[in-house]
Amino acid sequence: MTTLPPVPLPGARARPDATERILKAAATRLAISGASAMTMQEVAEEAGVSKGLIHYHFQDKDTLLVRLVVWITEGLVRREQSALARSTPHGAIDDLWRWLEAELARGHVRALVELAGWRGGSVRPAATEAMRMRRVAATASAERLFSLLALRPRVPAVLLGDLLVAFVDGLACSPAGTGGTDARAAFDVLWLALLGLAE
């Protein structure tokens, strides 16, 4: 007799696996303590797991930080790519703002900025690759937005991508970095200036 797998209850959510819980906890602790002060014990307590389980999944702190860079960047880029996927010319700026506001609230961009300054041997190459991936995604976002608005920038799109990444990183590290009206005002001013570069 074969048994069927249990059917989840309506509204029940699957528990994230231990690796994802650890990565989320590491991102949270990183935003609070900074990379150098963050301990594996803090991450374990935040994730609700044993320190031994963290060492089982991630050999040491450097390994955890490298995986954290990759995990944050993959999610950030994926969400940015989907932000304008179904946009219309009328709602494109607002769609991009909703993506950015959610990212600021998540705190992962601030964590990436922190990790970019980490001096650990294997973290630096991962942070460099993360920055490259983010520039590619930001360049694509700029191109998509200009295209939706039937505009063409007078500067190379790659420069717009670099500017957007720098803006997002600066906003994530500023007091307005959790979103709100100041962050939205800065975002609107930036895009008004960028759209002023259109032909």
Would you write up a description of this structure?
The structure is a single chain. Residues 1-15 have low confidence and may be disordered. This protein has helices at 18-33, 40-47, 51-57, 61-83, 92-106, 108-116, 123-148, 157-173, 180-195. The N and C termini lie far apart (70 Å). The longest helix has 26 residues, at 123-148. It has a domain at 59-195: Tetracycline Repressor, domain 2 (Orthogonal Bundle). The protein contains nine helices and no strands. The radius of gyration is 19 Å and the shape is elongated. 69% of the residues lie in helices and 0% in strands. The chain is mostly helical.
Can you tag this structure with a few keywords?
199 residues; mainly alpha; Tetracycline Repressor, domain 2; 9 helices; 69% helix; elongated
- Characterize the overall form: elongated
Q: Give the amount of beta strand, in percent.
A: under 5%
Individual helix count: 9
User: CATH class of the domain at 59-195, anyone?
Assistant: Mainly Alpha
Distance, first to last CA = 70 Å
Summarize model confidence as the mean pLDDT: 88
Question: Gyration radius, to the nearest Å?
Answer: 19 Å
Kindly state the number of beta strands.
Answer: 0
- How would you spell out the order of helices and strands? HHHHHHHHH
For the record, the CATH architecture of the domain at 59-195 stands as: Orthogonal Bundle
The helix content, as a percent range, equals 55-70%
**Biggest sheet architecture:** none
